[in-house]
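note to self — DONT lose this again. spent like an hour looking for the file last time. sequence + predicted structure for the chain T wanted, 136 res
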Amino acid sequence: MSPPVVTRRTLPAVGFALLVLVVSLLPAPETGGPPLPAPLGVAVDKWVHAGSYAVLAGLLAWARGSRDTVVVAALVGLAVAYGCGIELLQTLVPSRSFSGADAVANAVGAAGGGAVWLAVAARVDALTERRGFTRP
């Protein structure tokens, strides 16, 4: 079995993962001013965590190009592990700390991103098949 090849499709996932790492390890800004609203009773920062990891999982799945649920689940697991690793690294930053709630938001977002990828990929496959095209 040959090692995986880094392709152009991999670069957005790697770039976004690095962006998440850098932003997550910057010192936390001072909080002040009026509190932000909590859509559906969930704090805004948890929505940001979930959205970020949904994008990361989606980019990983897109980079792999897989429609296999097991492969996408493994990529979601990779995104979750990455998020947990970052949460642990935040303990080394004086104004940051590990947050179990952030880790859960990361996991929920990654799972959602993987599910959206599978749904969109299935729909695209159905449309292309109906029009007589085949996926490479």
